[in-house]
Every structure is written in structure tokens, then in C-alpha cells.
């Protein structure tokens, strides 16, 4: 009797198993949410116009982040469906665990979606500015290496997002990288499903997106190679010319092995008795004028 009951329960669970929403349903849901968020952003801007200091506050509404956060709090943050999810009959869920995602997972997905790419790119820009700061203690070789690395990362991050979008068009499930990392899926719970023709159309769109990514990668590699060649040429010229004025020929060497023109390095050491490149202490009388160059 128990065996028959267990078989019935297992069969009933399989029949009631959540079905994964397809690409078209997820896209329609996000499009509806995006339209509502745009309307919400306009309402917030109109509301600020009623205040005297609306010009000061309105700059914070240039981006869509405030409207997105408000929308998230009253929908996904409170465990409710968004308007787009209600319209298409889908819900956020963990399909394998057969449960609603935890609040921490939903918040993490939101942070990664709204701030992940932007924060990373802004952080790389700030870091690159610090690397190129004249007050930096880095050597020229380290500056060139770090600039090359940071430039590559700034190109790779948007490409990863685009590649993920192409994979979503082809295979469905996770719409954003944030939801993939937090394992938040979409399940179809009511309403009619989309036809397979739409899914095939989206798969073709995904293939075109991946081809676009491949083309961008090839273009970026060509640009980086050209930049590296230019940097090498500049570096070669720097070894021939003074690295301070970049005009006169280097004729004077410091004890640490760096060469400059006599006028630049002698004037530099009068004000600051340190090598301009490696910061090693150098007395003005220790520099040597090279004769046979």
C-alpha cells in the first residue's frame, strides 16, 4: 500500500514539475517591465519639478537606477511578481530546488544586474587614471604593462555581457549574468506557451549576436596590436631621446643606469636629488656625461 502511494506521489510530482519559461516569454516580461520603469522615471522627474531644489535632485535621476531600485523593492524584493511576469505568466524560481529564490539571492542578482558592469568599468577607469598619474611610483615598464591589461579588461567585460545575451537567445533560461550566477530561473506557471517558431527565430538572433562578438574580438585584437606596436616605437624613441624633455638626445647617465640629457637631469637633481624614474637617491655630482654616442 505504501509502495503504491509513493509511486502515485512521485508520478504526481513529475506531472506538476515546473516548466522552464522560454526566451520569448522572458523577453516580453522584461520589455514590459522596462516600459513601466521608464514611465516611473518620468513620474519621478515630474514630481521633483514641484520642489524648489529640483535641479539639484534631478541629476540623480539621469540614470535609470533610482526607478529600477524602487520597482525592485515593491515587486521582486517583496516576493511579488513584476508586471511583466504577471503578463507572461512566469515566476522567478529555483527549478531544481522547486522553491522561490531567497531574498539574499534576489538582492544579489539585482546588484549584479544594475551595478555589476557599470561598477567594474568605472573601477577600471579610475585604476587606469591612477596608473597614469604623474605622481605614481611605478616604472615606465609597469605603466605600459598595466595600461595594456586594463585596456583589455575594459574591452572584455562588455563582450562577456554580449556573449551571455547571445547564449540566452540560443538556449534560454538565464536572462542576465546576475541571474545565472545566483541560479535564479524563470518558470512558466500559467497561460499558453509561445510557439517553437519564435524560439528558432531567437536562436538565429543568438547566432548572429555571437558572430558579432567574434568580429568585435578580432577588431579589438587588431587595435590592441597596433597600440602595442606604437608603444614599442615610442619606448624605442624614449631610449634614444631624453625621457624628461623628449626632445634632446640622452647623453648623461645616473648611477642607477637611466640616461637623460645633461640639462634636464642636472636641473632635476638640483631641486630633487632622486632619479626621475626609479626614485633612487642620486647626488648631482655623481652623474656621468657619455662621450661616444
UniProtKB/TrEMBL annotation:
GO BP terms: protein import into peroxisome matrix
EC number: 2.3.2.27
PROSITE patterns for this protein: ZF_RING_1, ZF_RING_2
Transmembrane segment boundaries: 153-171
Keywords carried by this UniProt record: Membrane, Metal-binding, Peroxisome, Peroxisome biogenesis, Protein transport, Transferase, Transmembrane, Transmembrane helix, Transport, Ubl conjugation pathway, Zinc, Zinc-finger
Membrane topology recorded in Swiss-Prot or TrEMBL: Multi-pass membrane protein
Cellular component terms (Gene Ontology): peroxisomal membrane
Top-tier EC class: transferase
SUPFAM superfamilies: RING/U-box (SSF57850)
Protein name listed in UniProt: RING-type E3 ubiquitin transferase
Lineage start: Eukaryota, Metazoa, Ecdysozoa, Arthropoda, Hexapoda
Amino acid at each position: 500500500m505504501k509502495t503504491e502511494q509513493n509511486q502515485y506521489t512521485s508520478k504526481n510530482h513529475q506531472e506538476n514539475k515546473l516548466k522552464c519559461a522560454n526566451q520569448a516569454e522572458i523577453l516580453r516580461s522584461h520589455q514590459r517591465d522596462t516600459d513601466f520603469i521608464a514611465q516611473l522615471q518620468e513620474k519621478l522627474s515630474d514630481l521633483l519639478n514641484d520642489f524648489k531644489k529640483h535641479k539639484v535632485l534631478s541629476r540623480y535621476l539621469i540614470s535609470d537606477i533610482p526607478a529600477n531600485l524602487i520597482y525592485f523593492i515593491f515587486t521582486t524584493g517583496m516576493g511579488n511578481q513584476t508586471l511583466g511576469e504577471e503578463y507572461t505568466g512566469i515566476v522567478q524560481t529555483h527549478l531544481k530546488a522547486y522553491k522561490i529564490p531567497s531574498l539574499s539571492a534576489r538582492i544579489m542578482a539585482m546588484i549584479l544586474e544594475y551595478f555589476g558592469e557599470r561598477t567594474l568599468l568605472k573601477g577600471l577607469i579610475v585604476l587606469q587614471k591612477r596608473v597614469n598619474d604623474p605622481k605614481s611610483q611605478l616604472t615606465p615598464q609597469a605603466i605600459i604593462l598595466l595600461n595594456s591589461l586594463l585596456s583589455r579588461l575594459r574591452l572584455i567585460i562588455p563582450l562577456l555581457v554580449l556573449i551571455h545575451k547571445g547564449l540566452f537567445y540560443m538556449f534560454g533560461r538565464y536572462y542576465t549574468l546576475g541571474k545565472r550566477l545566483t541560479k535564479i530561473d524563470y518558470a512558466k506557471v500559467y497561460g499558453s506557451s509561445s510557439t517553437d517558431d519564435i524560439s528558432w527565430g531567437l536562436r538565429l538572433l543568438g547566432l548572429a549576436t555571437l558572430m558579432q562578438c567574434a568580429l568585435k574580438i578580432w577588431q579589438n585584437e587588431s587595435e590592441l596590436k597596433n597600440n602595442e606596436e606604437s608603444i614599442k616605437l615610442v619606448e624605442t624613441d624614449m631610449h634614444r631621446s631624453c625621457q624628461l624633455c623628449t626632445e634632446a638626445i640622452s647623453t648623461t647617465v645616473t648611477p642607477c643606469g637611466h640616461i637623460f640629457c645633461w640639462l634636464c637631469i642636472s636641473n632635476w637633481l638640483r631641486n630633487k636629488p632622486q632619479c626621475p624614474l626609479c626614485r633612487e637617491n642620486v647626488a648631482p655630482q655623481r652623474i656621468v656625461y657619455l662621450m661616444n654616442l
